[in-house]
Amino acid sequence: MMEKFKRYLSQYFEHVFVLLILLATSIINYYIPYKIAFLNFYFLPIILGAYYLGQKRAMLGAVFSALLVLGYMLLTPSAFLAANSTDQVFLHLSIWSGFLILAGAVVGKLQENLKLEVANARKLNTQLAQSQQELNDSNIKLLDNNHSLEDRVQERTQELQQSKSAIESLKSKVEMALYSTMDSTVVNLMIEGRLRNEKRLMSVMFVDLVGFTSYSEDIRPENVVADLNRYLQDMEPVMLAYHGHIDKYMGDGIMCEFGVPQEFVMHRLMAVTCALKMQAMLTARAHPWKMRVGIASGAAIAGLIGSHRQTYTAIGDIVNLAARLEQNCNPGRILVDKFTHEDIQPFFETRKLRVLSTRKDLDLRKEQELDSLVRKIIAQPGNAQLHYQIGQIHLNIQEPVEALQYFEAALRLEPKNDTFKIAYAEAGINIKSQEQISVKGKRHRIEAFEVISLKDPLLNRNKIPQALYEKYQYVAAQISIPEDVTLPSEVMDGSVGQSRVVAVLSFILADNLGLSESDKRDILQAGFLADIGKELISPNLRNRRGGLTISEIDIIQQHPEESCRLMRKMGYDKPAVLKLVKHSHEHYRGSGGYPNQLKGNDIPIGARIIAVADAYEALTSSRPYRESWERHAALGEINSEVEKGVFDPVVVEVLAKLIA
């Protein structure tokens, strides 16, 4: 009801306004005796008129009201006079009329401004509503597009994931196929596009089983294959541990290279150590055969050979030489050439054998006879007749140079023997004949050395004096950790035996410092394992001549932590031993640059002992980049480091007394 009244009033307010003024004027002037007292009543309709009808109509209404009141006053002046004079009434009415008109004008103006503002606001609200609606529509479309896009992205992601999984599966299968036929290092270099054909120094090893053919004739084929696979399963980890590239399997034979495709400075040492460990593995696993190993070193070409089906292999004279050495090797033995022997001699017990022919068309009976006579002459070097017999065989197989050497040796032993003189002259004539004509198939002979065993570094009197060794020689037997834990790392920088010497020497220092048996056992184990973390450091960096960069030094200083990690991985996780290894390279006065640094007596005494023993062993050992130091000179160098705060002076003082 109220809403209807408001709508009616809003629609017909102008008529209501005029009617209201007429009624008010009529009622006031007819019924109220004191008309002037109610003149202010007219402000109400005028203000309402100004608000609802506008300024112009309100002013007209005010003028109309004033004229009506003036008319009433002229008709009935007594109703307006009261106690006032006529002039006062006119003045009052004039003022009243002016204010009435002014009120209508002001309120009307305000109302028009308000209407304008309201209209603008409504317009802006309409535009805002339209914009909001458009924004809502856009948001809805955007959400729809987002959902659609998310669906498409999800579908595409699933497709890519499926493609990736398929590619990874295919890649895995290809890699597995490649790994089963090629060395993993070669495969990775091929995938990365870094495999190149090049001429490089390397060591080539040929391995062959003696008696395998006759063994396989009496055994069922499946058993032969199973036995051969068991043998290869034992040999492969040894070759891979020493970074050998398994070139190919040739029945029961193996061809393996060291120094390719990865370059290793100590490839000769790595190859011979690997061969020695393979012989030991064959014996330990009780295989029913014996093994022959031939190793030759030198320059050869390495690369991918083949058209569609390729293989990474080595080509060159040293390959043929290694094969020849293997053929001439006795079962259970290792033969190396002279170039290989030069590098490994400090680490292995070896013996020189007779020179071997590299030609293939050999008289095997003559070669066997030479082998027999050479063994005899090693035992009887003063037997002139043996020298003569060997010389005769060399002369018969057209090797006058070698014959001349043996005839000359026989003459030195028996200068008056005419038979030796005639043979010597005949050998000389044959040499001159060969200088004048080309002898087809002229053979060449090479020196061969048989590798017997690794040398015991504790027997090096430059490191450990005889009296000290005799007193503590029992200590080495207390090292329960297998040699194979540290040896593969040691051969890469020529530090073979380092772990053994450091461990024993650390035990000796601990004993002379009065430590307990438990502490000495911990120090023995920690000294042996302190440097296994060197695997973190590349071989090229470990064999570097000259200074190192800051980043390279940072890498080297991380190896104690790496040693601890490897120890935990292998099960050597005794906290006391790990703590000794962790702090075994820190400087006594600090500033050594190693992480988790301690200083002074805060460094465990065992770690301080190992640091001194390690420095002494390193200085008294040869390395690829320098010769070994005499032990007193090494001690002098360590004393100079004491002055710089590197080592504990008490430990160094004990070492000086022991090696004096």
Structure report:
The relative contact order is 0.05. The protein folds into 4 domains: 2-133, no CATH class; 195-358 and 446-455, Alpha-Beta Plaits, CATH 3.30.70; 362-443, Alpha Horseshoe (Serine Threonine Protein Phosphatase 5, Tetratricopeptide repeat); 457-659, Orthogonal Bundle (Hypothetical protein af1432), CATH 1.10.3210. Residues 435-443 have low confidence and may be disordered. It is elongated and about 190 Å long. The longest helix is centred in the N-terminal third of the chain and has 96 residues, at 86-181. It has 27 helices and 10 strands. With 660 residues, the chain is an alpha+beta fold. The strands form 2 sheets. Strands 1, 2, 3, 4, 5, 6, 7 and 10 form an 8-stranded mixed β-sheet that branches. Strands 8-9 form a two-stranded antiparallel sheet. Helix content is 61%, strand content 10%.
Keywords:
27 helices; 10 strands; 4 domains; two-stranded antiparallel sheet; 10% strand; Alpha-Beta Plaits; alpha+beta; Serine Threonine Protein Phosphatase 5, Tetratricopeptide repeat; 660 residues
Q: Count of helical segments?
A: 27
Query: DSSP strand (E) fraction?
Result: 5-15%
The total tally of domains equals 4
Kindly provide the name of the CATH class of the largest domain.
Mainly Alpha
CATH homologous superfamily descriptor of the largest domain = Hypothetical protein af1432
Q: Total number of β-strand segments?
A: 10
Average pLDDT reading: 81
Main sheet: strands, sense, barrel: 8 strands, mixed
Query: What Rg is obtained from the alpha carbons, in whole angstroms?
Result: 55 Å
- Low-confidence region ranges: 435-443
The helix/strand class is: alpha+beta
What would the CATH topology of the largest domain be?
Answer: Hypothetical protein af1432
Q: Helix fraction?
A: 55-70%
